[in-house]
Amino acid sequence: MVEWDIRKLQILRTLRERGTVTATAEALRMTPSAVSQQLTNLAKQVGVPLLEAQGRRVRLTDAARLVLRHAEAVFEQLERADAELAAYRHGEVGEVRVAAFSTAVPALVVPAVRALRETSPGVVVRVREAEAGEAYEVLAAGEADLALSLAAQAPTVGDARFTRVELLADPLDVALPTGHELADVEGLRLADLAGEDWIFGGSGPWSDITRGACEAAGFTPRQGHAAAGWTAILAMVEAGMGVALVPRMAAVARGGVVMREVAEPRPVRHVVAAVRRGSEAGPAVGRVLGALREAARG
């Protein structure tokens, strides 16, 4: 099989366009002898004459035209490759795999994907729901390119494997059943609810966040019921079975639940993104991070 040389094919193509070896040499910034030598070598490689004398000029043989007919398809494909690589370098194309905790998917990831469809339609985002520390296990294993989690479960700033990006401080509101005696109280404080039954998970990040916020307000919450999903938690609040802290990102309107902002010091949870250190320089990853920041600000 012939070992094709793209550079030699380009010289042959230019000769067809320019008509003379001298004009070809000028166009390609070569010497005429170098052009002739390259074309002689190409003829030896393909095993057929490519040029024939025509007075003081040369003309392409039928074999040369056959070679160029096939070469044009190669040049076209290379142009497409150049264009796609240029787009990739500028973050206009690429695939980014995102691992995100459950409430971040509708609140941050979905708005970011929608925005990217408008601004960078060539960037494809693949989403995988993964809670807390699992997102970083997936990221470290190379199964995701970007992870979203809570700061409490994220790698430390000093972890050399990752670069962290702070996205937002998500306020924690109190969910009360409609008709609760404190539902309309101005300046509601967490400490005002110290005697209530609280609904939160038996363990895990949300249990830690609820306990930490209440303890910072001066009391230890009495756990009346344990639940991890927001649907179950809010259903129990609606039924009057207790109260709960709910991140604003996760709040879903329910007719029997009143969401109240808590007076200062207002509890928050910090949402962060992380990528493997160095990969933040990748254009497509940078586009997704930018879209997530915009979603967080929005």
Describe this structure in words.
This protein is an alpha/beta fold and 298 residues long. The chain has nine helices and eleven strands. It has helices at residues 6-18, 21-28, 32-46, 62-89, 104-119, 132-140, 205-216, 230-238, 283-297; strands at residues 51-54, 57-60, 93-100, 122-129, 146-150, 162-177, 197-199, 222-225, 244-247, 257-260, 268-276. Strands 3, 4, 5, 6, 9, 10 and 11 form a seven-stranded mixed beta sheet that branches. Helix 1 (6-18) crosses helix 2 (21-28), helix 1 crosses helix 3 (32-46) and helix 2 (21-28) crosses helix 3. The longest helix has 28 residues, at 62-89. The chain is rod-shaped, with a radius of gyration of 32 Å. The model has no long low-confidence stretch (mean pLDDT 89).
